[in-house]
Amino acid sequence: ADTYSTEQGRNTTCISCANGKTSKVGLTVCTGCDAGQYLDAFATPKVCEDCIAGQISTNGASSCTNCSAGYYANAAIKATSCIPCGAGKYGNEMGKSALTSCKDCPAGKYSSAKGVASSAECNDCSPGKYATTNIGNDEESKCVNCAADTYSVEQGRNTTCISCANGTTSTSGSTVCTACDAGQYLDTDGS
Fold it and tell me: Whole-model pTM?
């Protein structure tokens, strides 16, 4: 094992496989490991081992690499690529092995992108909007307009908007409340 020969009737020892390659007894070629595996060069003979969950490799790799933050690699397969956390989620640790490592963007934020690496990379709801939940914040439309007679100048607001002061009003989605023009008054009882 770990040697090869292409000569028929060879009467000397076979040629050692190059670094990063191995062979089984009687083979005429040395090969690298499949993608999703790495060559355990410390084993005798050298053997290809599957990457552990949360790691990937390419064909012929001598080691596996961790998935980046925002990505994971399933433990049930020989991972050749990392899977991004879905829209509305982020993953802030490297080398994760399951979808459950992806967390929801916090209330007041959303993300339509996949593979987001931290909650700070989730987008803030714009001023005049808010989101009180962290479930399914995968697009900007999850940020709700402030109701009429409320406002918010805050980005990433995660509570309902602030009521306008007496004598002022606003329309839906406002960032300010305005007073009535001279000669007008605010009808607060709807009559």
Answer: 0.76
Tens digits of residue pLDDT in 37-61: 888 877 777 888 889 889 999 888 8
**For 87-98, b where at least 16 C-beta lie within 10 A, e where not — what string?**
bbbbbbbbbbbe
Please give the helix or strand (H or E) that residue 39 lies within, else none.
Answer: strand 37-40
Neighbours of 12 (CB within 10 A): 7
Strands 109-110 and 103-104: unpaired
Q: Which bin fits 69, alpha (ψ -120 to 50), beta or left (φ > 0)?
A: beta
- The pair of structure tokens assigned to 116 is 């987001």
How many other C-beta atoms can be found within 10 angstroms of the C-beta atom of residue 3? 15
**pLDDT tens for each residue of 165-182:** 988 999 999 999 999 777
Number of H helices, E strands in the chain: 0, 18
Percentage of residues in the chain having pLDDT higher than 90: 55
